[in-house]
Amino acid sequence: MAEAKAPGARPEEFRPLSPHLQIYRWTWTMAMSVAHRITGSALYVGTLIFVWWLVAMASGPAAYATFQGVAGSWLGRLVLFGYTWALLHHMLGGLRHFVWDLGKGYDLATRMNLARLTLVGSIALALAVWLIAYAVR
């Protein structure tokens, strides 16, 4: 990597010339890459909620009622919907990467369409899961 040298600069003042985020124009693929990382991190929190559910079930009716009260509130349902969306978005992002691992989908139009499909598909699937859950309930 080339180094920029200001006139009279000391060696510790050299700065790399590589581009940074202020130069790049955001694209769908960049946004979905960031979203993939964020949803991956959010899944850790969701896993803690899942563990809380399992422990509450194993601990008896009182502990399960407490969990059910929190998860059944409007905030709890919003968090669970977010977890559902993050799980599905991360899965679809992984499938998008799998397509690329197969050597397919590298042209610009396909890359952009796959990125858009990841977002739209994850929202549609999360809504479908919740609508089905309410219909069965």
From TrEMBL:
Cofactor(s) annotated in UniProt: heme
Keyword Heme appears in the UniProt entry: yes
Primary site of residence: membrane
InterPro entries in the record: SQR/QFR_C/D, Succ_DH_cyt_bsu_CS, Succ_DH_cytb556, SuccDH_FuR_B_TM-su
Keywords annotated in UniProt: Heme, Iron, Membrane, Metal-binding, Transmembrane, Transmembrane helix
Gene3D superfamilies the record matches: Fumarate reductase/succinate dehydrogenase, transmembrane subunit
UniProt topology in membrane: Multi-pass membrane protein
Oligomeric form and interacting partners: Part of an enzyme complex containing four subunits: a flavoprotein, an iron-sulfur protein, plus two membrane-anchoring proteins, SdhC and SdhD. The complex can form homotrimers.
Protein name as annotated: Succinate dehydrogenase cytochrome b556 subunit
Organism: Chelatococcus albus
Phylogenetic classification of the source organism: Bacteria, Pseudomonadati, Pseudomonadota, Alphaproteobacteria, Hyphomicrobiales
